[in-house]
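Let us practice reading a record.
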Amino acid sequence: MREYLLVLFCTAAVTYLLTGPVRKFAIAAGAMPPVRARDVHREPTPRLGGIAMFGGLCAGILVASQLDNLSKIFSEGTDIRALLSGAGIMWLLGVLDDKWGVDALVKLGGQMIAAGVMVWQGVTVITIPVPGFGAVAVSPTQGMVISVTMVVVMVNAVNFIDGLDGLAGGMVCIAAMAFFLYSYRLWYGYSINDAAPAVLFSVLLIGMCLGFLAHNLHPARIFMGDSGSMMLGLMLAVAAISITGRVDPDLITSETGSLTATVHALVPIYIPLLLPLTVIALPLADLLLAVVRRTWAGQSPFAADKRHLHHRLLQVGHSHSRAVLIMYFWAALIAFGTVAFSVTNTGRTVVLTLAGLCLVGLVVLLTPQFRPRAPRAVQAFVPPRYRRRKPARAVADTAPAAGTAATGSGATGGGVTESGGTESAATGGSGEGPTPPTSAPMAELSAKDKELLGGLDGGSSAVGGRGRGTGRG
Protein backbone atom coordinates (compact mmCIF):
# COMPACT_ATOMS: atom_id res chain seq x y z
CA MET A 1 0.00 0.00 0.00
CA ARG A 2 2.89 2.39 0.74
CA GLU A 3 4.23 2.03 -2.77
CA TYR A 4 0.82 2.79 -4.25
CA LEU A 5 0.53 5.87 -2.05
CA LEU A 6 3.98 7.02 -3.20
CA VAL A 7 2.96 6.64 -6.85
CA LEU A 8 -0.27 8.51 -6.18
CA PHE A 9 1.54 11.39 -4.48
CA CYS A 10 4.15 11.72 -7.23
CA THR A 11 1.54 11.62 -9.98
CA ALA A 12 -0.61 14.25 -8.26
CA ALA A 13 2.38 16.50 -7.49
CA VAL A 14 3.76 16.45 -11.03
CA THR A 15 0.32 17.06 -12.52
CA TYR A 16 -0.27 19.97 -10.17
CA LEU A 17 3.12 21.58 -10.82
CA LEU A 18 2.86 21.20 -14.60
CA THR A 19 -0.63 22.67 -14.87
CA GLY A 20 0.54 26.26 -14.27
CA PRO A 21 3.16 26.29 -17.05
CA VAL A 22 0.79 24.42 -19.36
CA ARG A 23 -1.83 27.12 -18.78
CA LYS A 24 0.64 29.81 -19.86
CA PHE A 25 1.61 27.73 -22.88
CA ALA A 26 -2.05 27.28 -23.85
CA ILE A 27 -2.62 31.04 -23.68
CA ALA A 28 0.49 31.73 -25.76
CA ALA A 29 -0.47 29.06 -28.28
CA GLY A 30 -3.97 30.47 -28.64
CA ALA A 31 -5.74 27.39 -27.29
CA MET A 32 -8.51 29.59 -25.87
CA PRO A 33 -11.56 29.16 -28.08
CA PRO A 34 -14.31 31.77 -27.79
CA VAL A 35 -17.27 31.09 -25.55
CA ARG A 36 -19.92 29.11 -27.42
CA ALA A 37 -23.68 29.18 -26.91
CA ARG A 38 -23.64 25.80 -25.17
CA ASP A 39 -20.81 26.72 -22.80
CA VAL A 40 -21.44 27.54 -19.15
CA HIS A 41 -18.35 29.65 -18.50
CA ARG A 42 -18.50 33.33 -19.44
CA GLU A 43 -14.87 34.09 -20.25
CA PRO A 44 -12.46 32.35 -22.65
CA THR A 45 -10.47 29.77 -20.67
CA PRO A 46 -7.32 27.98 -21.87
CA ARG A 47 -7.46 24.26 -22.58
CA LEU A 48 -4.74 21.67 -23.11
CA GLY A 49 -4.82 20.61 -19.46
CA GLY A 50 -4.35 17.07 -20.71
CA ILE A 51 -0.68 17.90 -21.32
CA ALA A 52 -0.08 18.25 -17.60
CA MET A 53 -2.09 15.11 -16.88
CA PHE A 54 -0.06 13.11 -19.40
CA GLY A 55 3.12 14.38 -17.73
CA GLY A 56 1.81 13.21 -14.37
CA LEU A 57 0.99 9.81 -15.88
CA CYS A 58 4.53 9.39 -17.21
CA ALA A 59 6.02 10.47 -13.87
CA GLY A 60 3.86 7.99 -11.95
CA ILE A 61 4.80 5.12 -14.27
CA LEU A 62 8.49 6.04 -13.97
CA VAL A 63 8.29 5.99 -10.16
CA ALA A 64 6.38 2.69 -10.16
CA SER A 65 9.00 1.06 -12.37
CA GLN A 66 11.67 1.75 -9.72
CA LEU A 67 9.76 0.19 -6.80
CA ASP A 68 10.37 -3.41 -5.79
CA ASN A 69 6.82 -4.79 -5.78
CA LEU A 70 5.35 -2.69 -8.59
CA SER A 71 8.27 -3.28 -10.94
CA LYS A 72 7.03 -6.87 -11.39
CA ILE A 73 4.02 -5.52 -13.31
CA PHE A 74 6.40 -4.18 -15.98
CA SER A 75 8.31 -7.44 -16.38
CA GLU A 76 5.41 -9.91 -16.22
CA GLY A 77 3.08 -8.34 -18.77
CA THR A 78 2.57 -5.78 -21.51
CA ASP A 79 -0.27 -3.82 -19.93
CA ILE A 80 1.87 -0.77 -19.09
CA ARG A 81 3.31 -0.61 -22.60
CA ALA A 82 -0.16 -0.93 -24.09
CA LEU A 83 -1.49 1.77 -21.80
CA LEU A 84 1.23 4.24 -22.79
CA SER A 85 0.70 3.50 -26.49
CA GLY A 86 -3.06 3.98 -26.38
CA ALA A 87 -2.93 6.97 -24.03
CA GLY A 88 -0.27 8.63 -26.22
CA ILE A 89 -2.41 8.30 -29.36
CA MET A 90 -5.52 9.51 -27.56
CA TRP A 91 -3.64 12.40 -25.98
CA LEU A 92 -2.17 13.53 -29.30
CA LEU A 93 -5.61 13.37 -30.92
CA GLY A 94 -7.03 15.45 -28.09
CA VAL A 95 -4.29 18.08 -28.34
CA LEU A 96 -5.01 18.52 -32.04
CA ASP A 97 -8.72 18.86 -31.29
CA ASP A 98 -8.15 21.40 -28.51
CA LYS A 99 -5.99 23.60 -30.74
CA TRP A 100 -7.46 23.30 -34.22
CA GLY A 101 -10.58 21.16 -33.87
CA VAL A 102 -11.08 17.67 -35.30
CA ASP A 103 -14.12 16.30 -37.10
CA ALA A 104 -16.29 13.96 -35.03
CA LEU A 105 -15.84 10.99 -37.38
CA VAL A 106 -12.07 11.52 -37.49
CA LYS A 107 -12.04 11.63 -33.72
CA LEU A 108 -14.05 8.40 -33.54
CA GLY A 109 -11.60 6.74 -35.93
CA GLY A 110 -8.67 7.86 -33.79
CA GLN A 111 -10.33 6.42 -30.70
CA MET A 112 -10.76 3.07 -32.43
CA ILE A 113 -7.12 3.12 -33.57
CA ALA A 114 -5.92 3.76 -30.01
CA ALA A 115 -8.10 0.91 -28.74
CA GLY A 116 -6.87 -1.39 -31.53
CA VAL A 117 -3.23 -0.70 -30.65
CA MET A 118 -3.88 -1.73 -27.05
CA VAL A 119 -5.75 -4.87 -28.12
CA TRP A 120 -2.85 -5.77 -30.43
CA GLN A 121 -0.49 -5.54 -27.44
CA GLY A 122 -2.59 -7.88 -25.31
CA VAL A 123 -5.09 -5.70 -23.42
CA THR A 124 -8.23 -7.58 -24.39
CA VAL A 125 -11.03 -9.60 -22.86
CA ILE A 126 -10.21 -13.31 -22.90
CA THR A 127 -12.98 -14.87 -20.79
CA ILE A 128 -16.23 -13.71 -19.27
CA PRO A 129 -17.29 -15.17 -15.90
CA VAL A 130 -20.95 -16.20 -16.04
CA PRO A 131 -22.87 -17.46 -12.97
CA GLY A 132 -23.63 -21.14 -13.18
CA PHE A 133 -21.23 -21.75 -16.06
CA GLY A 134 -17.94 -20.40 -14.80
CA ALA A 135 -15.47 -18.68 -17.12
CA VAL A 136 -16.79 -18.61 -20.70
CA ALA A 137 -14.03 -18.19 -23.28
CA VAL A 138 -14.50 -15.73 -26.11
CA SER A 139 -12.84 -15.81 -29.51
CA PRO A 140 -10.11 -13.28 -30.33
CA THR A 141 -12.50 -11.43 -32.63
CA GLN A 142 -15.18 -11.24 -29.94
CA GLY A 143 -12.65 -10.10 -27.38
CA MET A 144 -11.40 -7.41 -29.74
CA VAL A 145 -14.93 -6.13 -30.42
CA ILE A 146 -15.78 -6.04 -26.70
CA SER A 147 -12.53 -4.27 -25.82
CA VAL A 148 -12.74 -1.65 -28.58
CA THR A 149 -16.40 -0.98 -27.76
CA MET A 150 -15.53 -0.59 -24.10
CA VAL A 151 -12.82 1.96 -24.87
CA VAL A 152 -14.99 4.02 -27.24
CA VAL A 153 -17.94 4.07 -24.83
CA MET A 154 -15.79 5.06 -21.85
CA VAL A 155 -13.94 7.77 -23.77
CA ASN A 156 -17.09 9.43 -25.08
CA ALA A 157 -18.93 9.08 -21.77
CA VAL A 158 -16.21 10.99 -19.93
CA ASN A 159 -15.94 13.49 -22.78
CA PHE A 160 -19.69 14.19 -22.67
CA ILE A 161 -19.71 15.15 -18.99
CA ASP A 162 -16.79 17.57 -19.33
CA GLY A 163 -19.13 20.55 -19.27
CA LEU A 164 -18.75 22.06 -15.80
CA ASP A 165 -15.68 23.09 -13.83
CA GLY A 166 -14.24 20.03 -12.10
CA LEU A 167 -17.06 17.69 -13.13
CA ALA A 168 -15.24 15.21 -15.37
CA GLY A 169 -12.09 15.09 -13.24
CA GLY A 170 -14.04 14.61 -10.02
CA MET A 171 -16.31 11.89 -11.36
CA VAL A 172 -13.42 9.95 -12.88
CA CYS A 173 -11.56 10.28 -9.58
CA ILE A 174 -14.56 8.84 -7.71
CA ALA A 175 -14.83 5.99 -10.22
CA ALA A 176 -11.10 5.28 -9.92
CA MET A 177 -11.33 5.20 -6.11
CA ALA A 178 -14.16 2.67 -6.22
CA PHE A 179 -12.34 0.57 -8.78
CA PHE A 180 -9.15 0.73 -6.70
CA LEU A 181 -10.93 -0.67 -3.65
CA TYR A 182 -12.37 -3.51 -5.68
CA SER A 183 -9.20 -4.45 -7.59
CA TYR A 184 -6.98 -4.06 -4.52
CA ARG A 185 -9.24 -6.46 -2.64
CA LEU A 186 -8.89 -9.06 -5.41
CA TRP A 187 -5.12 -8.58 -5.58
CA TYR A 188 -4.30 -8.41 -1.86
CA GLY A 189 -7.23 -10.31 -0.34
CA TYR A 190 -7.34 -13.23 -2.79
CA SER A 191 -3.72 -13.11 -4.06
CA ILE A 192 -4.76 -12.70 -7.70
CA ASN A 193 -1.74 -11.22 -9.45
CA ASP A 194 -3.69 -10.50 -12.62
CA ALA A 195 -5.50 -7.71 -10.74
CA ALA A 196 -2.25 -5.84 -9.98
CA PRO A 197 -2.21 -3.76 -13.23
CA ALA A 198 -5.77 -2.57 -12.57
CA VAL A 199 -4.72 -1.42 -9.09
CA LEU A 200 -1.82 0.59 -10.53
CA PHE A 201 -3.98 2.12 -13.27
CA SER A 202 -6.54 3.20 -10.67
CA VAL A 203 -3.85 4.85 -8.53
CA LEU A 204 -2.47 6.73 -11.54
CA LEU A 205 -5.96 7.94 -12.41
CA ILE A 206 -6.61 9.19 -8.88
CA GLY A 207 -3.31 11.09 -8.81
CA MET A 208 -3.88 12.72 -12.20
CA CYS A 209 -7.39 13.85 -11.25
CA LEU A 210 -6.45 15.18 -7.82
CA GLY A 211 -3.48 17.12 -9.15
CA PHE A 212 -5.53 18.73 -11.89
CA LEU A 213 -8.66 19.44 -9.83
CA ALA A 214 -6.74 22.00 -7.78
CA HIS A 215 -6.72 24.19 -10.91
CA ASN A 216 -10.02 23.04 -12.43
CA LEU A 217 -12.55 23.55 -9.62
CA HIS A 218 -14.99 26.44 -10.04
CA PRO A 219 -13.97 29.00 -11.13
CA ALA A 220 -11.63 26.99 -13.37
CA ARG A 221 -8.33 28.51 -14.43
CA ILE A 222 -7.79 25.88 -17.13
CA PHE A 223 -9.82 23.13 -18.81
CA MET A 224 -8.53 19.61 -19.44
CA GLY A 225 -9.98 19.65 -22.95
CA ASP A 226 -10.35 16.56 -25.09
CA SER A 227 -6.67 15.83 -24.54
CA GLY A 228 -7.48 15.14 -20.90
CA SER A 229 -11.05 13.81 -20.95
CA MET A 230 -10.44 11.21 -23.67
CA MET A 231 -7.25 10.04 -21.96
CA LEU A 232 -9.07 9.61 -18.64
CA GLY A 233 -11.82 7.60 -20.31
CA LEU A 234 -9.27 5.37 -22.02
CA MET A 235 -7.42 4.70 -18.76
CA LEU A 236 -10.63 3.82 -16.98
CA ALA A 237 -11.47 1.40 -19.79
CA VAL A 238 -7.99 -0.15 -19.66
CA ALA A 239 -8.31 -0.70 -15.92
CA ALA A 240 -11.60 -2.50 -16.52
CA ILE A 241 -10.37 -4.60 -19.44
CA SER A 242 -7.16 -5.60 -17.67
CA ILE A 243 -9.14 -7.28 -14.90
CA THR A 244 -12.19 -8.54 -16.78
CA GLY A 245 -11.66 -12.01 -18.16
CA ARG A 246 -8.42 -12.52 -16.26
CA VAL A 247 -9.92 -13.35 -12.87
CA ASP A 248 -10.53 -17.07 -12.56
CA PRO A 249 -13.50 -17.77 -10.23
CA ASP A 250 -11.89 -21.07 -9.20
CA LEU A 251 -9.03 -19.16 -7.55
CA ILE A 252 -11.48 -17.27 -5.36
CA THR A 253 -13.44 -20.44 -4.61
CA SER A 254 -10.27 -22.01 -3.23
CA GLU A 255 -9.95 -19.03 -0.87
CA THR A 256 -13.59 -18.69 0.19
CA GLY A 257 -14.33 -22.41 0.39
CA SER A 258 -17.78 -22.22 -1.18
CA LEU A 259 -19.27 -21.39 -4.55
CA THR A 260 -21.91 -19.18 -2.93
CA ALA A 261 -19.29 -16.94 -1.35
CA THR A 262 -17.46 -16.81 -4.67
CA VAL A 263 -20.61 -15.72 -6.48
CA HIS A 264 -21.13 -12.98 -3.91
CA ALA A 265 -17.53 -11.81 -4.15
CA LEU A 266 -17.65 -11.64 -7.94
CA VAL A 267 -21.03 -9.96 -8.28
CA PRO A 268 -19.62 -6.81 -9.95
CA ILE A 269 -17.97 -8.75 -12.79
CA TYR A 270 -20.44 -11.56 -13.45
CA ILE A 271 -22.13 -9.41 -16.05
CA PRO A 272 -19.32 -8.34 -18.40
CA LEU A 273 -17.82 -5.02 -17.34
CA LEU A 274 -20.64 -4.35 -14.85
CA LEU A 275 -18.49 -2.63 -12.26
CA PRO A 276 -16.74 -0.29 -14.71
CA LEU A 277 -20.11 0.69 -16.12
CA THR A 278 -21.60 1.32 -12.69
CA VAL A 279 -18.77 3.60 -11.65
CA ILE A 280 -19.57 5.83 -14.63
CA ALA A 281 -23.31 5.17 -14.61
CA LEU A 282 -24.19 8.86 -14.80
CA PRO A 283 -21.84 9.69 -17.70
CA LEU A 284 -23.04 6.57 -19.50
CA ALA A 285 -26.70 7.49 -18.98
CA ASP A 286 -25.95 11.00 -20.23
CA LEU A 287 -24.26 9.54 -23.31
CA LEU A 288 -27.17 7.24 -24.14
CA LEU A 289 -29.76 9.97 -23.61
CA ALA A 290 -27.79 12.37 -25.82
CA VAL A 291 -27.52 9.81 -28.64
CA VAL A 292 -31.24 9.00 -28.49
CA ARG A 293 -32.23 12.66 -28.23
CA ARG A 294 -30.11 13.80 -31.16
CA THR A 295 -30.98 10.84 -33.37
CA TRP A 296 -34.69 11.33 -32.68
CA ALA A 297 -34.35 14.98 -33.72
CA GLY A 298 -32.63 14.01 -36.97
CA GLN A 299 -29.22 15.28 -35.85
CA SER A 300 -25.84 13.63 -35.67
CA PRO A 301 -25.20 11.73 -32.41
CA PHE A 302 -22.02 13.80 -32.06
CA ALA A 303 -23.75 17.16 -32.50
CA ALA A 304 -23.18 19.33 -29.42
CA ASP A 305 -26.11 20.74 -27.46
CA LYS A 306 -26.92 22.21 -24.05
CA ARG A 307 -29.23 19.50 -22.72
CA HIS A 308 -26.87 17.29 -20.76
CA LEU A 309 -27.63 16.29 -17.19
CA HIS A 310 -25.41 19.01 -15.71
CA HIS A 311 -27.06 21.62 -17.93
CA ARG A 312 -30.47 20.54 -16.67
CA LEU A 313 -29.32 20.94 -13.07
CA LEU A 314 -28.36 24.54 -13.82
CA GLN A 315 -31.71 25.14 -15.52
CA VAL A 316 -33.56 23.83 -12.46
CA GLY A 317 -31.89 26.50 -10.33
CA HIS A 318 -28.82 24.87 -8.80
CA SER A 319 -25.61 26.86 -8.68
CA HIS A 320 -22.52 25.78 -10.60
CA SER A 321 -20.75 24.30 -7.57
CA ARG A 322 -23.89 22.67 -6.24
CA ALA A 323 -24.65 20.98 -9.57
CA VAL A 324 -21.14 19.51 -9.57
CA LEU A 325 -21.50 18.27 -5.99
CA ILE A 326 -24.83 16.65 -6.81
CA MET A 327 -23.23 14.76 -9.69
CA TYR A 328 -20.38 13.75 -7.37
CA PHE A 329 -22.86 12.43 -4.81
CA TRP A 330 -24.77 10.21 -7.23
CA ALA A 331 -21.61 8.91 -8.88
CA ALA A 332 -20.13 7.99 -5.49
CA LEU A 333 -23.40 6.43 -4.33
CA ILE A 334 -23.61 4.11 -7.34
CA ALA A 335 -19.91 3.25 -7.51
CA PHE A 336 -19.20 2.65 -3.82
CA GLY A 337 -22.60 1.00 -3.35
CA THR A 338 -21.67 -1.61 -5.93
CA VAL A 339 -18.32 -2.22 -4.29
CA ALA A 340 -19.90 -2.41 -0.82
CA PHE A 341 -22.38 -5.00 -2.02
CA SER A 342 -19.52 -7.23 -3.18
CA VAL A 343 -17.63 -6.85 0.11
CA THR A 344 -20.19 -7.19 2.88
CA ASN A 345 -22.22 -10.29 3.63
CA THR A 346 -25.26 -8.30 4.78
CA GLY A 347 -26.80 -7.16 1.53
CA ARG A 348 -29.91 -5.92 3.32
CA THR A 349 -27.90 -3.37 5.28
CA VAL A 350 -26.31 -2.07 2.10
CA VAL A 351 -29.67 -1.78 0.35
CA LEU A 352 -31.25 0.11 3.26
CA THR A 353 -28.27 2.45 3.51
CA LEU A 354 -28.34 3.16 -0.20
CA ALA A 355 -32.09 3.77 -0.07
CA GLY A 356 -31.64 6.31 2.73
CA LEU A 357 -28.87 8.11 0.87
CA CYS A 358 -30.98 8.14 -2.29
CA LEU A 359 -33.76 9.85 -0.36
CA VAL A 360 -31.35 12.50 0.88
CA GLY A 361 -30.03 13.00 -2.62
CA LEU A 362 -33.53 13.41 -4.05
CA VAL A 363 -34.42 16.02 -1.41
CA VAL A 364 -31.31 18.05 -2.26
CA LEU A 365 -31.97 17.62 -5.97
CA LEU A 366 -35.55 18.87 -5.75
CA THR A 367 -34.84 21.86 -3.47
CA PRO A 368 -32.48 24.11 -5.45
CA GLN A 369 -33.54 27.16 -3.43
CA PHE A 370 -32.25 25.65 -0.17
CA ARG A 371 -28.93 27.19 0.92
CA PRO A 372 -27.46 25.64 4.08
CA ARG A 373 -25.46 27.94 6.36
CA ALA A 374 -22.16 26.74 7.74
CA PRO A 375 -21.40 26.92 11.48
CA ARG A 376 -19.68 30.09 12.63
CA ALA A 377 -16.50 28.20 13.50
CA VAL A 378 -15.84 27.28 9.86
CA GLN A 379 -17.22 30.32 8.09
CA ALA A 380 -13.75 31.50 7.15
CA PHE A 381 -13.17 28.33 5.12
CA VAL A 382 -16.42 28.14 3.11
CA PRO A 383 -17.70 30.18 0.14
CA PRO A 384 -19.49 33.45 1.02
CA ARG A 385 -22.91 32.13 -0.02
CA TYR A 386 -22.77 29.55 2.78
CA ARG A 387 -21.83 32.01 5.55
CA ARG A 388 -24.31 33.22 8.10
CA ARG A 389 -25.58 36.74 7.63
CA LYS A 390 -25.28 39.36 10.35
CA PRO A 391 -28.46 40.17 12.29
CA ALA A 392 -30.35 43.27 11.15
CA ARG A 393 -29.68 45.01 14.50
CA ALA A 394 -25.92 44.57 14.11
CA VAL A 395 -26.05 46.00 10.62
CA ALA A 396 -28.07 49.01 11.85
CA ASP A 397 -25.60 49.65 14.66
CA THR A 398 -22.66 49.72 12.29
CA ALA A 399 -24.35 51.95 9.69
CA PRO A 400 -24.01 55.33 11.59
CA ALA A 401 -20.37 54.63 12.31
CA ALA A 402 -19.72 53.97 8.65
CA GLY A 403 -21.54 57.19 7.67
CA THR A 404 -19.58 59.24 10.20
CA ALA A 405 -16.31 57.82 8.99
CA ALA A 406 -17.20 58.58 5.41
CA THR A 407 -18.15 62.18 6.24
CA GLY A 408 -15.07 62.75 8.37
CA SER A 409 -12.83 61.41 5.65
CA GLY A 410 -14.31 63.78 3.12
CA ALA A 411 -14.06 66.80 5.45
CA THR A 412 -10.53 66.26 6.68
CA GLY A 413 -8.86 64.70 3.71
CA GLY A 414 -10.59 66.71 1.05
CA GLY A 415 -11.17 63.49 -0.95
CA VAL A 416 -14.34 61.94 -2.24
CA THR A 417 -15.84 59.16 -0.12
CA GLU A 418 -18.66 56.75 -0.92
CA SER A 419 -21.18 59.47 0.02
CA GLY A 420 -19.36 62.07 -2.09
CA GLY A 421 -19.52 65.85 -1.74
CA THR A 422 -23.33 65.88 -1.33
CA GLU A 423 -23.00 64.52 2.21
CA SER A 424 -20.68 67.37 3.19
CA ALA A 425 -22.99 69.99 1.70
CA ALA A 426 -26.01 68.56 3.48
CA THR A 427 -24.31 68.76 6.86
CA GLY A 428 -23.36 72.39 6.21
CA GLY A 429 -27.04 73.46 6.37
CA SER A 430 -26.91 77.10 5.32
CA GLY A 431 -24.19 76.57 2.77
CA GLU A 432 -21.77 78.98 4.47
CA GLY A 433 -19.01 76.38 4.52
CA PRO A 434 -16.39 75.86 1.84
CA THR A 435 -17.26 74.54 -1.60
CA PRO A 436 -17.53 70.73 -1.68
CA PRO A 437 -14.63 68.89 -3.28
CA THR A 438 -14.97 68.21 -6.96
CA SER A 439 -15.67 64.56 -7.77
CA ALA A 440 -14.48 62.69 -10.84
CA PRO A 441 -17.74 63.13 -12.78
CA MET A 442 -17.78 66.89 -11.99
CA ALA A 443 -14.35 67.29 -13.53
CA GLU A 444 -15.91 66.71 -16.93
CA LEU A 445 -18.34 69.69 -16.56
CA SER A 446 -17.78 73.19 -17.85
CA ALA A 447 -16.65 76.05 -15.61
CA LYS A 448 -20.16 77.62 -15.59
CA ASP A 449 -21.80 74.31 -14.60
CA LYS A 450 -19.25 73.81 -11.83
CA GLU A 451 -20.02 77.30 -10.46
CA LEU A 452 -23.75 76.58 -10.56
CA LEU A 453 -23.39 73.23 -8.79
CA GLY A 454 -21.00 74.71 -6.26
CA GLY A 455 -23.71 77.09 -5.09
CA LEU A 456 -26.22 74.36 -4.41
CA ASP A 457 -25.45 73.68 -0.74
CA GLY A 458 -28.48 71.46 -0.12
CA GLY A 459 -32.06 70.76 -1.08
CA SER A 460 -33.53 73.71 0.90
CA SER A 461 -30.98 76.30 -0.31
CA ALA A 462 -31.54 75.21 -3.89
CA VAL A 463 -35.22 76.13 -3.59
CA GLY A 464 -34.82 79.25 -1.42
CA GLY A 465 -33.68 82.74 -2.32
CA ARG A 466 -30.04 82.12 -1.35
CA GLY A 467 -29.78 79.42 -3.96
CA ARG A 468 -31.34 81.62 -6.63
CA GLY A 469 -29.04 84.53 -5.83
CA THR A 470 -26.02 82.24 -6.11
CA GLY A 471 -27.28 80.94 -9.39
CA ARG A 472 -27.63 84.35 -10.92
CA GLY A 473 -24.21 85.53 -9.79
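A brief commentary: Confidence is low (pLDDT under 50) at residues 268-273, 402-439, 457-473.
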